[in-house]
Amino acid sequence: MELVVGLDIGTTAVKAVLFQRDGTVLAIAEKLVTTYYPEPGWAEQDPVEVESKALEALRDVIQHSAVKRESIKAIGISCAMHSLICVNETGIALSNALIWSDGRAKMQADALSKKEIGARLYDKTGVPIHPMSPLVKLIWMKETGFNAYKQASHFISLKEYILFHWFGERMIDYAMASATGLFNKDTLSWEQEALVLAGITEAQLSNVVAPTEVLNGIRVEVAEKIGIQKETPFVIGAADGQLANLGIGAILPGEVAITVGTSGAVRQLVKDSRLSKQQGTFCYAFTEQYKIVGGPTNNGGIVVQWLKEVLHNEDEMEDFLKKAETVNVGADGLFFIPYINGERAPIWNQNATGSFYGLKITHTQNFIIRAVLEGITLNLYEIYQDVKQIAGEPERIFVNGGLARSKTWLQLVADIFGKEVCIAESPQSSAWGAAWIALVGIGVEHTLEAIKDSIHIEKVIKPNVENHSKYKRIYEEWKKLIPK
């Protein structure tokens, strides 16, 4: 039996998933990762801890499945975007990893967005000017005299940190490089104008390779800790967004993926660069043939979790969300703007805040739950409008992420978007995308598109036509509140 592992290094957890070649999940191991908030607006992770959790996840998924070492054909890697670590020549971290939600560089982002060079770099890199971007983080480091920045010999992501410590090589794939804001999405090379602005050189960055690049010769002690053969090939893979689209089967023109975990995103694969005039969307490289366009939101499942905690609700999540079904469409005029965590798309404003509008004495807990779910989903719909403008009208919508386990929320997506919503049998889309890239890298599979034959659509949610008609009117009222 041919087996493959997808290692998914996410924001809240590192997950290792063991697959059969046909996509069947045999085992999963998940290790939570700690995020630290040393100052308001800052968000960091310890790269030593993340690497350790990656080792543990791989070890556990192999041990618990009791598979033979030689049956694992390859391991592919997915990783969350926009992390930045300052390291010395030997790979020792001089700083924690500043992750995507770190907002310390908002002053630098505001200043850069008002300059001509900001618009020019967006055109070249496809990365909106925002504190999430490692480019903007580096500018903050330079301008504030950040000690780790001054002492660093290299600047890398969490994936690069792990690869260096496991293989002794400095390399980064197109997708992870593209998310830095330092990489030209069209020439697939580091963008010199961005490097000058960040105050660094190309020598301080990793070599850029295709997502199918195979890494051999893992350090013996690492292989022993994981429980694999030293000869087991690793494939570098890509970023979690691109691999989520691949792993859910949203590959062809007209196929859009909506992911909602802690955060969220609307994404579509395309074969040429496409940018919005308002800088409302990203365009990142994936392979030499594919790029991905879309918009990310800071406010996905984290908002639901916040509400659950505020209400001191101890129900299971699905039971909590089902309370929204007792309330009519529109929550009796209660609107919710979900920007409690600042926001990326569609407004790209780290200073944005959330709010309820239209609150009445008759609004109970269930109305508030419905309004929050509607607010999150209407925000995704607003992002979708920008993506649709540059990528065209979608034919199918694929949904994945934590909220995709909620029947209540899935029906809400179908009703607001007015489209059929497809849900894959396995929710492990980023890990399966990484595993598939690994199979292509070692030559067992030959195309990305062939993954569709191994993705089983569990169900298709059809929209309620009457509800969609109501939501079109609600959306027009909701979006008027955003500037306020």
TrEMBL record:
<dbReference type="InterPro" id="IPR018485">
    <property type="entry name" value="FGGY_C"/>
</dbReference>
<dbReference type="InterPro" id="IPR000577">
    <property type="entry name" value="Carb_kinase_FGGY"/>
</dbReference>
<protein>
    <submittedName>
        <fullName>Gluconokinase</fullName>
        <ecNumber>2.7.1.12</ecNumber>
    </submittedName>
</protein>
<dbReference type="Pfam" id="PF00370">
    <property type="entry name" value="FGGY_N"/>
</dbReference>
<dbReference type="GO" id="GO:0046316">
    <property type="term" value="F:gluconokinase activity"/>
</dbReference>
<keyword id="KW-0418">Kinase</keyword>
<feature type="domain" description="Carbohydrate kinase FGGY C-terminal">
    <location>
        <begin position="257"/>
        <end position="440"/>
    </location>
</feature>
<keyword id="KW-0808">Transferase</keyword>
<feature type="domain" description="Carbohydrate kinase FGGY N-terminal">
    <location>
        <begin position="4"/>
        <end position="247"/>
    </location>
</feature>
<dbReference type="InterPro" id="IPR050406">
    <property type="entry name" value="FGGY_Carb_Kinase"/>
</dbReference>
<dbReference type="InterPro" id="IPR018484">
    <property type="entry name" value="FGGY_N"/>
</dbReference>
<dbReference type="Pfam" id="PF02782">
    <property type="entry name" value="FGGY_C"/>
</dbReference>
<dbReference type="InterPro" id="IPR043129">
    <property type="entry name" value="ATPase_NBD"/>
</dbReference>
<comment type="similarity">
    <text>Belongs to the FGGY kinase family.</text>
</comment>
